[in-house]
Amino acid sequence: MAAVSNTIILVLVFALLNGAYAAARLGSYNVDKSKISVSGISSGGYFAVQFHIAYSKTLMGAGVVAGGPYYCAEGQLNTALTSCMNRLLPSLMDVAKYVDKVHEDAKNGKIDDPTNLSNDLIYLYSGTKDTVVRPVVMKSLERFYGYLLNKNNIVTMFTTPSEHAFVTDDYGNLCSYLGSPFINNCRYPTAYNIFKQIYGSGILPANKSSAIEKNLLEFEQSEFFSTQMDNIGYIYVPTGCQSNATACRLHIAFHGCKQGREYIDTTFALHSGYSGLAEVNNIIVVFPQIHKSILSNPNGCWDWWGYTNSDYVNQDGPQMSGVKKILDRVANI
Ligand SMILES: *[C@@H]1O[C@H](CO)[C@@H](O)[C@H](O)[C@H]1NC(C)=O
Ligand SMILES: *[C@@H]1O[C@H](CO)[C@@H](O)[C@H](O)[C@H]1NC(C)=O
Ligand SMILES: *[C@@H]1O[C@H](CO)[C@@H](O)[C@H](O)[C@H]1NC(C)=O
C-alpha cells in the first residue's frame, strides 16, 4: 500500500514539474516569405547548415559560427568529435563526399533540390583560437558551400582571435576564454554581420539597450516535435511586427551545446546581439530550445551526429521537421 501511494505521489510530482506550466501557443505573423534565414553556433552551427541544405526552397541564407559541412559526422559520434571538431590534421576536408550526399538525399526526396541554394547568402565565422571546432573545419565548410552556390555570395570572418564562443561587441567573457555562456566580447558584432550579409547593408546596428525584454516571448514547443525537446522555446517579436502592419523578416537562431534554456535561461537570446538587431530591423527571431538527456545528449546539443535517428540530417529528422513546423507556423506557410 505504502509503495503504491509513493508511486502515485512520484507520478504526480513528475506531472507537476513537467506539465503544470504551459507556455503560450506559438503565433503567426506577417512574414515576408522570401526573407527567411537561419544561423547557429557549434552544434547549432552544424544544425543551421543541415537545416539550410534540407529546406533551401524556404530559406535565403545562413550564418554559421563554428559548425561544419552537411553530414560531416556520417551518423557517428566519434567522427563528430574527431574529424568534424577537434581535427588535428591541418588539411582541409575532402568535402566532395558531403556534396555528393546532398545530391543523393535530394534525389531520394529527403531534402529540397540544391539548385534552390544557388543565390543564397552565406556568412561564416571561426575564431583563430577555437580549440573545440578547429578553424580548418570552417574553412572546409566554405569549400563545401562553394560547390553549391556562387562563391561571391559567401562572406567569411576567420581572423578574430576568439575561443569557441558566439562573439559580440558588448557582452560576454574575454575573447580567448572558453566557458559558459560561450558568448565572448571581442569587440566584433557577429549577429550584426550575419544579418548584414543575409539581409543587406540596410541593416541598422543595435546596442545593449535595443532589445526590449518583454518582446522576448516563451512559446510551447512540444506540439512541434515527436522526440523530446525543451517544453519552452523563445521568440523575439519586435514592436514593429506585433500588429502585422509590416511584413517582417524571419530568422531562426540555433544555440550551441550547454547554451539552451536549461543552462543559461534567456542569456543567448538576449545577449548574443540578435534581439536588439531584431527590434531595430523588424526581424522576428525564433530561438528553439534543446532538452538535454543524460544518456543520449548530456550536453544539450542539436542533433548533427544521429542521437535521434538516422534521418537526423534530412527533412525526416525529428528535430528538422519540428523546427520546420515552427517556421511554418510563424510565417503562416
Ligand atoms: C497576424 O497575422 C496572422 C496570420 O494571418 C494571424 O494569425 C494573427 O492573428 C495576426 N495577428 C494580429 C495581431 O492581427
Ligand atoms: C527549387 O528548385 C526546383 C528544382 O530546380 C525549382 O523547380 C523551384 O522553382 C525552385 N524553387 C524556388 C523557390 O526557387
Ligand atoms: C542604442 O540604440 C537605440 C536604438 O535601438 C538608440 O535609440 C540609442 O540612442 C542607442 N544608445 C547608445 C548609447 O548608442
UniProtKB/TrEMBL annotation:
Coiled-coil segments: none
Signal peptide start and end residues: 1-22
Protein name (Swiss-Prot/TrEMBL): Polyhydroxybutyrate depolymerase
The entry's keywords: Signal
Superkingdom per UniProt: Eukaryota
Keyword Signal: yes
